[in-house]
Design brief:
alpha/beta; 8 helices
């Protein structure tokens, strides 16, 4: 049985990333530094061959997909959008450090910020997005695809359904980089499990 590959790539930098803000649902574009970084990566490394490019609906992901894979019009999957941080959206840790709700969240006393997305619902939404991508690939006979997403979304999705098993923070990745996933139809249909088999790129630029 033939397997499928999806290359999960984190979007480029935004101004809010540089400022250390919690940015989830806020629809920000890439900043100039983010665009320059992606162009540098594209010129330095060979991104994986793909037949289809998926993207979160937010601008920073769509723009990243268009820079890295200009020959493709991204197929938008709404469920791949980033987490909604509720009352903490667009704020930095320094701005929040004296708020009791922030202390409760960072200490693990509560699962989410006030008015934020429920973490379980977030995970379920991402799993639904993954399932949509797999279904589209199967329907179209596509075996290699890219998915441009958000760092937090990749970490959450992989901690829930990827092998090898790792803690959420262990799946962190830098802007413009990511992981290659192998999907075996029988395993995925039975358990929803995907297998991380490589990084994007295979050799990080700093190690070339």
């Amino acid at each position: 049985m033939r397997t499928y590959k999806i290359h999960f790539i984190r979007h480029g930098l935004t101004e809010a990333n540089l400022e250390g803000k919690y940015i989830g649902k806020t629809n920000l574009p890439l900043c100039s530094a983010g665009i320059e970084r992606l162009e540098e990566l594209k010129n330095k490394i060979d991104y994986p061959y793909v037949e289809l490019v998926f993207s979160s609906p937010l601008s920073r992901c769509i723009e990243t997909a268009e820079i890295l894979y200009p020959a493709f019009e991204p197929t938008v999957i709404d469920e791949l959008s980033e987490y909604d941080f509720g009352d903490f959206e667009n704020k930095t840790a320094i701005e929040l450090e004296n708020e009791e709700a922030y202390k409760d969240w960072t200490s693990g006393k509560v699962p989410s910020p006030p008015n934020a997305e429920d973490p379980r619902a977030f995970t379920e939404r991402l799993a639904l997005g993954l399932n949509k991508m797999v279904r589209i690939m199967m329907e179209q006979g596509v075996y290699d695809a890219a998915a441009v997403m958000h760092g937090g979304a990749i970490m959450t999705l992989f901690s829930a359904c990827a092998l090898p098993r790792r803690a959420t923070v262990e799946w962190i990745t830098e802007d413009g980089l990511g992981y290659t996933v192998k999907i075996t139809p029988s395993l995925y249909a039975k358990s929803g499990i995907i297998e991380v088999v490589d990084t994007v790129p295979t050799v990080p630029p700093e190690e070339e």
